[in-house]
Design brief:
- The chain is of the alpha/beta class and about 375 residues long.
- It contains eleven helices and twelve strands.
- A seven-stranded mixed sheet has the order 1-7-6-5-4-2-3, with helices on both faces.
- It is globular and about 75 Å long.
- Bound molecules: pyridoxal-5'-phosphate.
Length: about 375
């Protein structure tokens, strides 16, 4: 496949080739940790040791890079592994700006791990371009954004913030976990895209993974690759195989998640027991116009605030029958979560908030389930 091919074609074929030794259409899983040297000591296949490179990981990296429109990708054993590799690629004393509404795990790893090794972070509201610009320093190396954010579904204007970062000599990294396919940060000016492939790309709640995609095969990505191989947070060949299989159906799945998400969001917005709906596809979302400009659909993540306080919210989650009470998102099955109880001390998440990952069941069944749970 070539970059000119459309996204569904790229997703099905990128990283896939019929196995030359057997004719297998589904790629073999190369569990081997090590690869044979020729008599002269060279590595004819190009593979040496699976922490450095493995055929399944290479295939996944090629495919994700093709689908995101980047030059190169690096896969990790979890989303957090990918996030950490970005910050580990910087030097002690470097300054980074992290969106204050980024995933709570991102803020946590920056504060509790990377700041202890000398990275200097500022946490800034990334919906405010002026605030980001004001925080840029001579040693600012990176601006980290996430949109839509988790769990408040806040929208960052990717082109605007990428422009501010570039003007300040910093790279812009966008966590695109909630909006694969339907949002293309590299086309909007971001330098790197990060995904927790545990979510929509894997798509079936059966694997952990993370990936970084870079617009350019540049010095920074070379450093990321060095961290990947030498720090060793690499995914197993089987994990790569599962994620690559998930990617094949992603363009169609994300359409289904988005259609169901929109139907469920409209139902919730009209329900008297619901105080507030956070969904970028609704016109009532404060930054719907920006979302509509930079997203081709709005995905399956919805947060709601239930009237009546924390107990009322927990009681709704207790009554669902099709939705499963569990953390995580992006799988074929719908999940519901009282977010404040998992996000710990995070003060951003209201106690009345339920986060929904709308799956690929029939939207009418999902709405009926929520209707009976809301009472
Ligand atoms: C937006 C976002 N980024 C990153 C992560 C971390 O990914 P992982 O759990 O695969 O380490 C998550 C996990 O929930 C997430 O939702």
């Amino acid at each position: 496949v070539k970059p000119k091919h459309k996204i569904e074609t790229l997703a099905v074929h990128a990283g896939h080739a019929v196995d030359p030794s057997t004719g297998a259409v589904s790629p073999p899983i190369h569990l081997s940790s090590t690869f044979e040297r020729a008599a002269d000591g060279t590595y004819a296949s190009g593979y040496i040791y699976s922490r450095d490179a493995n055929p399944n990981r290479n295939a996944l990296e090629q495919a994700v890079a093709a689908v995101e429109g980047g030059a190169v990708a690096a896969a990790f054993g979890s989303g957090m592994g990918a996030i950490s590799a970005v910050f580990q690629s910087l030097a002690p004393g470097d300054h980074v700006i992290v969106a204050s509404d980024a995933y709570h795990g991102t803020a946590k790893v920056v504060r509790n791990v990377h700041a202890r090794w000398g990275l200097v972070p500022s946490f800034v509201d990334a919906s405010d371009a002026k605030a980001i610009a004001a925080e840029l320093r001579a040693n600012t190396k990176l601006v980290w954004i996430e949109t839509p954010s988790n769990p408040l579904l806040k929208i960052v204007d990717i082109a605007e913030i990428a422009g501010v970062a570039r003007a300040g000599g910093a790279k812009c990294v966008c966590d695109n976990t909630l909006a694969p396919i339907i949002q293309r940060p590299l086309d909007l000016g971001a330098d790197l895209v990060m995904h927790s492939t545990t979510k929509y790309i894997g798509g079936h709640s059966d694997v952990l993974g993370g990936v970084l995609v870079s617009k350019e095969n540049d010095e920074f990505l070379t450093r990321v690759r060095e961290i990947q191989a030498s720090a060793g947070a690499v995914p197993s060949p089987f994990d790569c195989w599962l994620i690559l299989r998930g990617l094949q159906t992603l363009p169609w799945r994300i359409r289904g998640h988005s259609d169901n998400g929109m139907a469920v969001a409209h139902f919730l917005a009209a329900h008297p027991a619901v105080e507030r709906v956070y969904y970028p596809g609704l016109e009532s979302h404060p930054r719907h116009d920006i979302a509509a400009r930079q997203m081709s659909a709005f995905g399956g993540m919805i947060s709601i605030e239930v009237k009546g306080g924390r107990e009322a919210a927990v009681a709704v989650a207790a009554k669902v029958r099709i939705f499963t009470r569990a953390t995580s998102l992006g799988g074929v099955e719908s999940l519901i979560e009282h977010r404040a109880s998992i996000a710990g001390e995070d003060p951003r998440t209201p106690q009345t908030l339920l986060r929904l990952s709308v799956g690929l069941e029939n939207a009418e069944d999902l709405i009926e389930d929520l209707a009976q749970a809301l009472g």
